[in-house]
Amino acid sequence: MKIFPGLILSSVRNFEAEASYEMRDILKRKLGIENVLIEPLYGLSCLSIIKFSNKPEIVMEQLEEKLIDNPYMFNYVLKLVPIEIKMKSTIANIKNAGNNYAQKINDKFRWRIILRKRNSDLNRDEIIEKAAEPIERGIVDLENPEIIFRIEIFGNKTFTSLSNIKEISIPKIKRHNIKSNEEIYV
User: Fold this and answer.
1) pTM, whole model, 2 decimals?
2) 3 state SS of 116
3) Where in the sequence is the domain holding 74, given as residue range(s)?
4) Which residues of 26-156 form beta strands (DSSP E)?
5) What is the CATH number of the domain that holds 30?
């Protein structure tokens, strides 16, 4: 396992390069983040991994604020997901991530695991069971969690994070903005 602060970028099909350029530009111009590395996930269209040195949760909060002011600043990026740790895709590694995150969850937190797996034969139920096993604190809340333990598996690479931000969906923000504007002019 290694510390890997960044984001998973989901983009419009066949516009991965444009989404990468757009994201790099926004991170640099709007947030002042230098040294951004964006690599496509080969074999999985529409997905790229962004790596930077800032805390992903803070970057997500800053992007959310910018999107509220200007929901149309993205044309090719569809979704952003925070990641903190990169590891080889094994049940043991994912359980170790659960061990690390267990110490960060207090007794009153409502939490849940979100798992997305692509190109992997690992058993979904076993992944969730082993990831949750070391977490003996807090309350599991699948509907309204305060903390998300995210597991993203892409073949032999797995990325995890523990965050209070689930993900940013640009189309949802744009739809909400249109709805809000319609209410103003009714």
Assistant:
1) 0.91
2) strand
3) 2-185
4) 37-40, 47-51, 77-88, 110-118, 139-140, 147-154
5) 3.30.2130.30
